Amino acid sequence: MAIIAFIGLGNMGTPLAANAVKAGHTVRGYDISAERRDAAASHGVAVSREVAEAAAGVDILVTMLNAGPSVIEVWSRAVTVMKAGGLVIDCSTIDVESSRRAHSIAHEAGMLSLDAPVSGGVEGATAGTLTFMVGGEAAAFEAGLPLLEKLGRRIVHCGEAGAGEAAKICNNMILGINMIAVSEAFLLADGLGLSHQALFDVASNASGQCYALTTHCPVPGPVPTSAANHDYRPGFAAELMAKDLRLSQECARFAGAETPLGHAASALYERFIGKDGRGVDYAGIIRFLATLKDEVPMARAGG
Ligand code: NAD
To answer: What pathway annotation does it carry (predicted)?
Structure first.
């Protein structure tokens, strides 16, 4: 069994570390927050007071952090003390450029490396049912697969360094745009006197079918498990969707890709969280979109 260090013991990092403990690995961990270190310790994680202490001599180091600069900072320190030829895996959702920079740091230190962002949220991390989207060389993928298979259900090798992040960011741009499209359709249905259930019954079996409609339906009723039935409690918080859409736009600029709907979706989610969307499920954007009708007549009238 491997010695593994998890850096970033937040909502996602702690359940991942806890599942690695359950799988029989020796698991160390570090987080800048003492509260989060204590919570992870209660799951059998041997917590350290700094990155270098947690990473010293480990076979595998996993980061689960909020932003690219933190990943680069942690990897830079960790690769100098890990076991020679060890494996570094970043499961955070970060921009592709930072991810590739982190891979080069690992490569220059003679380590194997993977970017492996996830889909499935805290529930999936806890239940071990996440999807991992993985970027990196074949040898690194082979080395990481046994651990990832213990932490998730679906492991997809998407390509070279940064390809996992690219897949995650493209996927979530689709989801953000789709949630807005589905919400707009329900608001239009309201105006046309069409019931939510009738629109759902048709679109969920026709060409409008998508995950935002059939799983995260933004109106109460048709999908009883969706956040709309629970006052839009997350679920997947609007600020995380806003972050992922922001990343999509950073990546679009970096890649020279035109994504006008991604751009519009990003702007709408920023406005939503700037108003009252923070801490609300991302499907709650329908409530924000409903408020726009007061602005539209002025715009149409050129006001
Ligand atoms: P979180 O804020 O709960 O956890 C991040 C942790 O990292 C925090 O505990 C923070 O104290 C710690 N941290 C920050 N900088 C650090 C550093 N330099 N060294 C050590 N610890 C540090 O966030 P989360 O919900 O666990 O999300 C982690 C990542 O997973 C994010 O990139 C997020 O976008 C992604 N993600 C989250 C979800 C979700 O549903 N929460 C779903 C998919 C992907």
So the answer is: Amino-acid degradation
DSSP for residue 114:
E
- For the Cβ of 54 lying below 6 angstroms from any atom of ligand 1, the answer is no
What residues have CB less than 8 Å from 20, skipping those under 6 apart? 4, 6, 27, 147, 150, 151
Query: Cα(101)–Cα(96) distance, rounded to whole angstroms?
Result: 9
pTM over 0.90: yes
Q: Which residue has the tokens 């992922």?
A: 244
Distance CA 15, CA 128 (A): 9
How far is the C-alpha of 111 from the C-alpha of 104, rounded, in Å? Answer: 10
- What Cα–Cα distance (Å) separates residue 188 from each residue in 35, 183, 193, 195, 254? 46, 9, 9, 10, 36
Does residue 240's CB lie within 6 angstroms of at least one atom of ligand 1? yes
Q: How many CB atoms sit inside 10 A of residue 217's CB?
A: 28
Query: Residue 168 catalytic?
Result: yes
Give me the residues of the chain with pLDDT under 50, please: 301-303
